[in-house]
Amino acid sequence: MLNYIIRRLLWMIPTLFGITLLVFVSIRLAPGDPATVMMGVGSGGEMSEGSDFASRIAAFKRENGLDRNVFVQYLGFIGPFNIKPDGHELFGGSGKDPWSGLLALDLGTELQRSNVPILEELGRRLKVTLLLSFISILITYALSIPLGIFSATRQGTVLDGAVTVVLFLLFSIPTFWAGLMLILAFGQSGLGWLPVLGLESKDAANLSGLEALWDRGLHLIMPVMVYTYGSFAYLSRQMRVGMMDVIRQDYIRTARAKGLSERVVIFKHALRNSLIPVVTLFASVLPILIGGSVVVEYVFDIPGMGRYAYEGLVQRDYNIIMATTTFSAFATLIGILLSDITYALVDPRISYE
Amino acid sequence: MSEVPKIKDPAGPSAYSKDYWDIVFEQLGRRRLFRAAVVVLALIYASAIFAPLIANDRPLVLEAANYGEYNKAHRTLLPAALGLGRVAKTSAEDYLEGRARSSDFSYAQALEQERLAIETQVLTLQNYLAPDRHGALDEVLGAAEELARLGLAGDTESAKELASKFKAQVKAVRADYAAGDPAHPEEGGLQLQGGRTSYPLLESIGRGEMFFMVLWGLLLSWPLWNRLTNRILGMDRGRIRSARKPKLACVLTISVGAALLWGATIGGEMTFATAPYKDALTDGEIVATRVVFPLLSQGFAESNNSEDFRPPTWVEAAMIDEDGYYEHGARMPQPDPITGYMPPAVPVRVRFSEAARNAPSRHLLGTDSIGRDMLVRLLWGGRVSLSVGLVSAFLLVLIGTVVGAIAGYGGGAVDLVISRVIEIVLCFPAFFLILMVVAFTDPDSVPPIIAIVVVIALVRWTGVARLARGEFLKLRDQEFVVAARAMGFSPWRTIFRHILPNAMGPILVSGAFAVAAGILTESALSFLGFGIQHPVPSWGSLVVESRSAEHWWIQIFPGLAIFVTVLCYNLIGDAFRDALDPKMKKESEE
After folding, report:
1. I need a surface site. Which of A107, A289, B312, B537 has the fewest CB within 10 A?
2. Residue A149's closest CA among A36, A71, A265, A35?
3. Contact residues, B window 402-431, toward A, CB-based 8 Å cutoff
């Protein structure tokens, strides 16, 4: 098992490099660049040759290594050599700050705000997103497993039909629309029960511990709902199907024939096996949550990783985009690995030796 | 399918066993939800395909007295007559000497040109006049012809004489034929008649649009003509089955043929400009004797004064008074408490054929930031959203099937490589990647709609590929495939003629889900501001107009449209999956 995990972890390295290379090259080749966004050409600045403006752009590009060949830039992103003017001597730098890049665990600074190191900012943002995802995954599993069992054991009844229809409806709602509708219903314009934007109130600094927790909880309700409903609907359906598959098996019939109570049959004999497909779905839920975080955090104005990626895209900040992409690809890979491992853990027939 | 149920068929022994697809469709037909979803989707597609006929600012039929055009012809008639007289009076030699250096008209050509100018004006005038008034104008035409003939014959003297007579004649006609002001008939002047009937809306419908309209009609009437042709085929299942492909080909040929015919005759090109008809009709420049507007007479790009962010007009808060002020709600103007000054407002302009200012039907779903009607934009936006869903699903099913088929059928090293690639692509966080690529695509070089479709297909094909690979792995060692190979069929023929039809079920199911996913993805991209914006909106980009909770109508309705469409596709995919799954079938029989 350990062998297998290590092998898989090693496999992740080339995959990750492949993904980053692809993303890196495609965004560099695309038109539009951070220098012009920075100087505000888009907002009507005049650009003429030889002007102060053009030279400022050139300086900006030189400082950030944007004037190099794309593949040299990619090398700079990977590291460990810094290719900027103050970087390693090997790349014509002054040698002041020779190491940077992914291998040196340095993702550079934001292009627009050069005093903000991306790694720190990403860490701050991740705390928010991971908190949201963690709560959402917990809630999703806590709700969908019992609901799936409930539905499967009452197969064909009106209740089962109703549950199926509701899950179907939930599954078809566009994420951003769910967020907007919740805001309309519970925000200031509707019932006014819940705060709409951000993660805490403006005066959160003055609140005592318990009050701050309450405040934070109130702010989390709607985002978590939007985060959860889709994967909840999906998982519940899978759980129902998985349970129905298992109930039909011979050993369940045997258990019933022995005269065991329905309760024991379902929860002791059937439950474990029906969990297998649902547990492995963890891998596909994780990337959905990460991708969905862009929309959810945009709607609720939450300073998380998705919002960060969005800001990076708007500002054409290559460093932010590369950092967020690399991280989400990494998280997806880990998710897949985790689900493969849990697969082996819950189903002894599967072994990776 | 080995277990073919014996079914008593009223048509007699010639109607024998049903094949796989017959059974699948029979299963589907029994599901009420499936049927409802199909009907709703058919309606949604109809609203999108026929959007130009439902919601447009061009009239369907226009028979109108165009005072602007008449007056212009009326003004131009005398200068044209003078021009002809001038040319006819000069001899050919003098003309050639005196003509402008840039002109290369011969004398005869110049005469003909001047005469034509008069004829054009006369015909325009006659178009709007009763037949009993045509006589004097016909005489003008005859005189013009005579004058041109004299000029050509070189008879300068008679031409001079006739020219002065002609001038007086035209002057007299001009005085007689001045049009009155349609708004003030009592002031005298001629009242014009409706001219030729024109069809501005139909002329703006392009070939492609006609294709989809005909196709939709044929598909919807399928149960009807299908039953008819089946009866002609004698209800013989064998013949019906072999007629399936010709039927499909027929449907496509008829649609394409109709589209081409349309393009060659009436049809024109779709333009995104707003049409001038409504304004001209309102101002009285055109006075219609017969005009038919579509159900919703608003263009999707037509803005309305003072009606920016106007709530749906059946809501109390949407009432606007004569001066353009809101009468209720948050937007009611407050005069300055000290000076009593009211902020200025522009009155609402109710154009020809539009519902009254405060009629509930004026803007059923409200308006956007520059007063464009949301219902109309929703209808037109459906064209974009629905086609993005369909095309992206088609592309990804195509890519997935081909790749999966190669992997499953080829096996060995090919399979290993392809499986590896699929695994790598699966590692991409799909939405994130799509978002990034679309955000970085230059909208000038690649239209966003195409970028979105292609990127969705390129990122999402792996699901279908895995499915197809599994099916092919399962099927490739079955007897019928071995038999096909043993008969020496080429791999392509084996794959596409023998295996694929049997593997098609699950692939179609995932196709239905892919359409839903495509629509959702596009709307999310547009919502974030990276998607489709101009000139025709998509459902997602409609929501971008306002994030403010005050403008609830902008957020609710487009999202509702997306939701319903996605729900229908999911229902259809689900019903399909159940109908294909033998396990489920037994269950429903139990």
Report:
1. B312
2. A265
3. 424, 426-431
Clarify whether residues A203 and A306 are in a common domain. yes
What is the token pair recorded at B42? 């058919």
- The Cα–Cα gap between B449 and A350 comes to 45
Nearest to B429 among A30, A172, A332 (CB): A332
| H or E segment and range at residue B278 | helix B277-283
User: Do B390 and B515 contact (CB within 8 A), yes or no?
Assistant: yes
- Pairwise CB contact (< 8 Å): B435 & A294: yes
Say yes or no for a CB contact (<8 Å) between B439 and A26: no
* Higher per-residue pLDDT: B419 or B395: B395
Q: Are A320 and A311 in contact (CB under 8 A)?
A: yes
What would the DSSP string read from start to end of B286-315?
A: EEEEEEE--SB---TT---TT-TTPPPTTS
Q: Which of B451, B433, B431 is nearest to A326 (CA)?
A: B433
What average pLDDT does the segment A29-54 reach? 58
Are residues A78 and A130 part of one domain?
Answer: no
pLDDT, residue B531, reads 77
Instruction: Pick the residue from chain B with its C-alpha nearest to A337.
Output: B427
User: Has residue B255 got a pLDDT over 90?
Assistant: yes
The answer to whether the CB of B23 falls within 8 A of the CB of B1 is yes
**Cα–Cα distance for residue pair A146/A184, rounded to 1 Å:** 30
* Same-domain status, A104 and A161: no
Taking an 8 Å cut-off on Cβ atoms, the answer to whether A19 and B520 are in contact is no
Whether residue B589 is predicted with pLDDT greater than 50 in this model: the reply is no
Which residue has tokens 């997602």?
Answer: B540
Tell me if A321 and B433 make a contact (CB, 8 A cut-off): no
Q: Say what the ipTM of the complex is.
A: 0.84
Average pLDDT, chain A: 80
Arithmetic mean of pLDDT over chain B: 84
Range(s) of the domain holding residue A136: 120-346
Which tens digit of pLDDT belongs to each residue from B119-172? 988 888 888 888 888 888 888 889 888 888 888 888 888 888 888 888 888 888
Chain B residues whose CB is inside 8 A of the A309 CB are: 432, 435
- DSSP assignment of A27-59 equals HHHSS--HHHHHHTGGGT----TTSHHHHHHHH
Domain residues for the domain of B402 are 375-589
DSSP secondary structure letter of residue A268: I
pLDDT digits (tens, 9 = 90+) for A130-170: 888 888 888 999 999 999 999 988 888 899 889 988 998 99
Residues A80 and A200 grouped into a single domain? no
Final residue of a structural domain among B162, B187, B212: B187
pLDDT at B528: 87
Please give the Cα distance from A216 to A227 (Å, whole number): 16
Instruction: Look up tokens 């409903």; give the residue.
Output: A229
Q: Which helix (H) or strand (E) holds B79?
A: helix B67-89
d(Cα A260, Cα A278) in Å, to the nearest integer? 26
**pTM passes above 0.80:** yes
Phi, psi of B65 (to 5 degrees): -90, 115
What tokens does B495 get? 């794959």
Closest residue on chain B to A310 (Cα): B528
